[in-house]
From TrEMBL:
InterPro entries the UniProt entry points to: Cyt_P450_B, Cyt_P450_sf
Top-rank taxon, per record: Bacteria
Protein name in the entry: Cytochrome P450
Family that this chain belongs to: Belongs to the cytochrome P450 family.
GO terms assigned for molecular function: heme binding; iron ion binding; monooxygenase activity; oxidoreductase activity, acting on paired donors, with incorporation or reduction of molecular oxygen
Lineage per the UniProt record: Bacteria, Bacillati, Actinomycetota, Actinomycetes, Kitasatosporales
Length: 422
């Protein structure tokens, strides 16, 4: 990702097919990555609910900022569809474009439509329904206990690496039938992170290829010896998915379960440790953990933006003329904080009408949000129960967000606490 500051001048070429010439904003830059709400306010002020933006390499797109407009896009597949082969920019996109893992068409549930999407999503739903939520909570508690034991005697740790990313990673690989430990499992998780949230020097396209190779081997293993896991249930499902279809859908399942859930845990811990509204209540029995989890989905949603939808035909959205084949970036974070739904700048975190799990047919399939909640809630509650005097080891102003326009999570979360006897 570029590290230059966001620009507000006319950036796009005059022939830009989405009409995003005047005032198009690059979705990059350190100031945006740390305080994106300021950019959203500027975009709303200058462009309204649908803003012209520039992706990596100054590729034009539309960012949907409004809650009503995004809800409309998510529930009108006949106008805004998922098959990226419709994109009118493909002739300008190089094969090593950093966002290719997001938009390059794959035989995945993410890009299917209509009956085919319902068939593929149905397989995932049934595979996830085979997970007992009480057993998942127990397994997450066991994983949490082991992770905490590794650093509890030291009195301090960096939670992102020692706990936050590790817990959902171990939980999801268990659910999919992979070994919890081992270099190939860790490599898979690292490559998924690079694919979704590439940093300086990372190659997301190569990383995505390695993810596919590892999961092809997993599917082959489960065809030979199925077990009580997500992969086996997909392999043996009556819909008869091919190996490649299962691989691509597993990528979607694992990617959605691991890093977004880790960022949900991270952002909730940050809120609990820095916001006095929660600090006063949490010490009295952790009763506000659920409220903190929900507030994070409104104000610091783990997935800020998502590519996306592609216009099926010329249409209007938010006063903008959207041409057939235009790319729309789903501004989940911007929509959740839309002043049109919170006119007095107060986000009512007690309700759950946020769009953090998307919406329409392509929303996170049931029961995925419930399983993510089990993992996140167990991770936060177990940590706070075992380390009751947990506190930040730095001033809150020293915490920094990862440089990503897509995911919302901290780079590091250093904490201190009273050492536990080993």
């Amino acid at each position: 990702m570029s590290t230059s500051s966001p620009s507000f001048g006319p950036q796009a070429p005059a022939s830009c097919p989405v009409g995003a010439g005047a005032g198009a904003v690059r979705l990059s830059g350190a100031s945006y990555q740390q305080t994106p709400t300021q950019l959203y306010r500027s975009l709303r002020r200058d462009h309204g609910a649908v803003a012209p933006v520039l992706l990596d390499g100054d590729v034009p797109a539309w960012l949907v900022l409004g809650y009503a407009e995004l809800s409309y896009v998510l529930t009108h597949d006949e106008l805004f569809a998922r098959d990226s082969r419709r994109w009118n920019q493909w002739e300008t996109i190089p094969p090593d474009w950093p966002l290719m893992p997001f938009v390059g068409y794959q035989p995945s549930v993410l890009f299917t439509e209509g009956d085919e999407h319902r068939r593929r999503a149905g397989v995932i739903t049934e595979a996830l329904e085979g997970i007992d939520q009480f057993e998942l909570a127990r397994d997450c508690r066991r994983i949490a206990d082991r992770l905490i034991a590794d650093f509890a005697g030291s009195g301090r740790t960096e939670l992102m690496s020692s706990y936050v990313h590790a817990l959902p990673m171990r939980a999801v690989v268990e659910m999919c039938g992979m070994p919890v430990s081992g270099s190939d499992t860790q490599q898979l998780v690292d490559d998924l992170r690079i694919s979704l949230d590439a940093g300086e020097g990372d190659d997301p396209v190569a990383a995505y290829g390695r993810v596919g190779d590892r999961l092809r081997q997993l599917v082959e293993d489960k065809r030979a010896a199925p077990g009580a896991d997500i992969t086996s249930r997909m392999v043996t499902h009556g819909a008869g998915l091919t190996d490649e279809e299962i691989v691509q859908d597993l990528i979607s399942v694992i990617a959605a379960a691991q890093q977004p859930t880790a960022n949900w845990i991270c952002n909730t811990l940050r809120l609990l440790l820095t916001d006095e509204r929660f600090a006063l209540n949490v010490s009295g029995g952790r009763l506000s953990v659920g409220e903190a989890l929900n507030e994070v989905l409104w104000l610091d949603t783990p997935t800020q933006n998502f590519i996306g939808r592609w216009a099926v035909r010329d249409t209007q959205l938010g006063g903008r003329h959207i041409r057939a084949g235009d790319c729309l970036v789903l501004g989940l974070a911007a929509a959740n904080t839309d002043p049109e739904i919170w006119p007095e700048s107060y986000v009512g975190a007690e309700n759950s009408a946020h769009l953090s799990f998307s919406g329409g047919e392509h929303r996170c399939p049931y029961p995925a949000p419930l399983l993510a909640d089990v993992m996140a809630r167990t991770a936060v509650e177990t940590l706070l129960e075992q380390l009751p005097d947990l506190m930040l080891a730095v001033d809150p102003t020293e915490l920094s967000w990862r440089p990503s326009i897509w995911m919302r999570g901290l780079s590091t979360l250093p904490v201190q606490f009273s050492p536990m006897a080993q």
